[in-house]
Design goal:
Radius of gyration of chain A: 21 Å
CATH topology of chain A: Rossmann fold
Number of helices of chain B: 11
CATH class of the largest domain in chain B: Mainly Alpha
Helix content of chain A: 10-25%
CATH topology of the largest domain in chain B: Butyryl-CoA Dehydrogenase, subunit A, domain 3
Number of domains of chain A: 1
Largest sheet of chain B: 4 strands, mixed
CATH superfamily of the largest domain in chain B: Butyryl-CoA Dehydrogenase, subunit A, domain 3
Strand content of chain A: 25-35%
CATH superfamily of chain A: HUPs
Largest interface: A-B, 12 and 16 residues
Order of helices and strands of chain B: HHHHHHEEEEEEEEHEEHHHH
CATH class of chain A: Alpha Beta
Strand order of the largest sheet of chain A: 11-10-9-12-8-1-6-7-13
Number of strands of chain A: 13
CATH architecture of the largest domain in chain B: Up-down Bundle
Largest sheet of chain A: 9 strands, mixed
Structural class of chain A: alpha/beta
Order of helices and strands of chain A: EEEEEHEHEHEHEEEEHEH
CATH architecture of chain A: 3-Layer(aba) Sandwich
Distance between the termini of chain A: 43 Å
Number of domains of chain B: 3
Structural class of chain B: alpha+beta
Number of helices of chain A: 6
Oligomer: heterodimer
């Protein structure tokens, strides 16, 4: 079985980046790390394959960490024309790259931890003409079918779907492995298929700033946190807290 | 000393291991005054963190020494000093002689399981009456056929309550002084071996450090590491990497202490402004951070010399001396800047203060480092 897993490099959330006022997007000339939300898909891919098959990572930035964790190879799309790509532009590139690998299964996170659009996986599936299943907490493959426990607000749905398909994996559902010393040392010698958008048959006008179908018109700082309400317990505090939570519709 | 991609990736892996697999458990280990070393080492071995420089055949990774520096620096960031010390004993104090001078049989029996985490190792040199003065040790091994019969006691032995074997330094002849000592592997299951007392220490409280007794303790002569009678010389080489480990971990420990202190002082407001706005505080932290940086750079120079196969005794001694003094200074200043909060157990500073006090004593006291340096540099009359 061949599993493609999509991963993204993002600015380290522990060292928050800045917004570039000219582009109104996050500055990416800082140290980039593997988006943690992608690490769950990677782990799931490695568990599904378990030595009997191949895990191929597809990314738009170099990523040795996933290769060190155990992925077998990578398709790296690198092209200056990609700067400024929106969700759909990204999806077009990823879909074209994934096609090269001819996978049985594609795994992705449900959303990235920098852009948070949460739309790329489904757009990729649509462009590839594949069915997609979202918010997986468990994935099993047998006889050309994938069985997914799909998280819902109330619990989970059992969903089956024919392969090839795309599954987005909920963060936190598996424990991502650490790359081992041996894995780290082996990462550099693993095959990386480095391609530009021309290799993928994509027109430069369809991606990046040029191909953007959406525009960020303004950015502003998040409002400062307002002072909370202090509830003094005079015997009825729990009632007031419960009604507050009900107002928020969280219970 | 720009790190390679592999070194950076290894550092990142070790750092997240410490943050996720170690630090959340430190409070419980401190309370229990014990750490589950077999479990921790087995986990680490699975990721290739043990035996970095040893042969792959015996559980090693075949890496160069710079990876040991990274491992030590990152474990220095642990929320206690006990674990980096226990790890140092396992990988850099109890096992280098065995890896260098041991027979394939010895390595298969003792080194491989230690590097896989199923055996915990200790280094047994100091005695109640002979610590830094190694030539004064009295524990004696007398040959009886194919066995050594060992009598004596060893003091301050890290990992030894839960340990599976010791790298013991004992007198094997009556020559006295620096001659006639041998390094012998003593399984803690050997008849005549016992733990007399687990020591109640000021710091390093999660570390099982003990006084050990050898009462007609019998082990095979085949357990002798290297040459009979050359134990002191072999141990001196082993001490060099021990000092280097102490210097490497100190960098990580001080670095995280300064980071935490700065974060606290940024939030702590006094007289209407953050304490970190005070020039005295800024200058103190900046100077300490600069000293830590100097030690780090010096350490990496030692590591590179060591990789080239040079004798690093002098540099290791300098680094160990500096590490002991600098960590005391950092611990004291960080505690001071926390005020009353620095003096309570719920703040990290209390443990840091007492754990790091050991660096100036263990593995050869500051005064012994100075004695070695005075002699090497010709400041003697």
């Amino acid at each position: 079985m061949k599993v493609v897993v999509c991963v993204k490099q993002i600015p380290d959330p522990a060292d928050p980046g800045e917004i570039d006022p000219s582009t109104k997007t996050l500055k990416r000339d800082v140290k980039l790390i593997l988006d943690e939300s992608d690490s769950y898909g990677v782990e799931m891919a490695l568990q599904l394959v378990d030595g009997d098959g191949e895990v191929v990572l597809v990314s738009m930035a170099p990523n040795n960490e996933v290769l060190a964790m155990g992925a077998d190879s990578a398709i790296l799309v690198s092209d200056e024309a990609l700067a400024g790509s929106d969700a759909l532009g990204t999806a077009k590139v990823l879909a074209a790259a994934i096609k090269r690998a001819e996978p049985d299964l594609v795994l992705a996170a449900t959303e990235s931890s920098d852009g948070y659009t949460g739309t790329v996986p489904e757009q990729v599936a649509e462009l590839l003409g594949m069915p997609s299943v979202t918010f997986a907490k468990e994935v099993a493959v047998a006889d050309g079918t994938v069985a997914v426990k799909r998280q819902t607000e109330a619990g989970y749905d059992d969903v089956t779907c024919p392969l090839p398909c795309l599954v987005s994996v909920t963060a936190g559902v598996v424990e991502p492995r650490y790359p081992s010393f041996k894995g780290i040392m082996a990462a550099k010698s693993k095959p990386v298929d480095e391609v530009g958008i021309a290799d993928l048959g994509i027109d430069a006008g369809a991606v990046g700033w040029a191909g953007g179908g959406q525009e960020i018109v303004a950015i502003e700082p998040a409002p400062a946190r307002e002072a909370g309400e202090i509830v003094e317990d005079e015997g009825d505090a729990y009632e007031r807290i419960v009604s507050f939570l009900e107002e928020l519709k969280v219970i | 000393m720009r790190e390679s991609d592999e070194q950076a990736a290894f550092r990142l892996m070790v750092r997240s291991f410490v943050e996720r697999e170690v630090n959340p458990y430190v409070e419980a280990w401190e309370a229990a005054e014990m750490m589950p070393l077999h479990e921790i080492f087995t986990k680490m071995a699975g990721l290739g963190m043990l035996g970095l420089e040893y042969e792959p055949e015996f559980g090693g990774q075949g890496a160069d020494h710079t990876f040991t520096v990274i491992l030590a620096e990152e474990f220095g960031r642990c929320a206690n000093g006990s674990l980096p010390m226990a790890l140092g004993v396992q990988v850099d104090m109890a096992t280098p002689s065995l890896a260098r001078f041991g027979t394939p049989e010895q390595k298969a029996q003792f080194l491989k399981p230690a590097m896989e985490g199923s055996m915990v190792a200790s280094i047994a040199v100091s005695e109640p009456d002979a610590g830094s003065d190694v030539a004064a040790i009295r524990t004696k091994a007398v040959r009886d056929g194919d066995e050594w019969v060992i009598n004596g006691s060893k003091m301050w032995i890290t990992n030894s309550v839960q340990g599976d074997w010791l790298c013991l330094l004992a007198r094997t002849s009556d020559e006295g002084g620096y001659s006639g000592m041998s390094q012998i592997i003593v399984p803690t299951s050997a008849p005549g071996f016992s733990v007399s007392k687990k020591l109640d220490k000021l710091g390093m409280r999660a570390s099982d450090t003990a006084l050990l007794s050898f009462d007609d303790c019998r082990v095979p002569v085949a357990n002798t590491i290297g040459q009979i009678g050359k134990g002191f010389q072999q141990q001196m080489a082993q001490f060099v990497v021990e000092r280097m480990w102490a210097a490497y971990t100190t960098v990580g420990a001080c670095e995280v202490a300064l980071e935490k202190t700065a974060a606290f002082l940024r939030e702590r407001h006094v007289f209407g402004e953050p304490l970190l706005a005070k020039q005295h505080v800024q200058f103190t932290l900046a100077e300490l951070a600069a000293e830590v940086d100097l030690l780090r750079t010096y350490n990496w120079a030692i590591a590179e010399a060591y990789n080239r196969g040079e004798d690093t005794t002098r540099q290791a001694t300098i680094a160990k001396l500096k590490a002991g003094r600098l960590s005391r200074e950092v611990a004291d200043r960080c505690l001071q800047f926390h005020g009353g909060m620095g003096y309570v157990e719920e703040t990290w500073t209390a443990r840091f203060f007492r754990d790091n006090r050991l660096t100036s004593i263990g593995g050869g006291a500051d005064e012994v480092m100075l004695q070695v340096l005075a002699k090497m540099d010709g400041y003697v009359a």
